[in-house]
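Action item from last week, closing it out:
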Amino acid sequence: MPRTGFIDHIGIGVPDLAAAKAYYDELMAVLGLREWFDTGPGGPLNYGPDGAQGTQLFFYQAEEPGMYSRHDTGLHHLGFLVASRAVVREAHRWALARDAVVLDEPQEFPQYGEHCFATYWLDPHGIKLEAVCHSPETG
């Protein structure tokens, strides 16, 4: 009998699947995630934990034009749990190198837990992304 879990996968429509693939293929390597299977040129794209079961993220080509806004009803942001504060900082540097709009520099967010350390930025489609670690600083 299958176990009940939290979230198996999330699917997001984007206006340009090829641009999303170029962006997220690079980002997922920084975050320690990978593409799970090749779906062909029409997508969808899929990413998840390397070699382990866990939540997967799918990107689909949007079938209807429209602008995304985290301020509207629906998805506010995607938070990626990473292995360390060093990876949070690396994700921030990666986003800056791609001229991303950075909403919050890497810092502690105590309102979300004792050791919450995160950075927030916008992807090319305006989707708010977060790299977050819940571990104290080491070394």
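Closing note: Strands lie at 9-14, 33-35, 45-49, 56-61, 77-81, 102-108, 117-122, 128-133.
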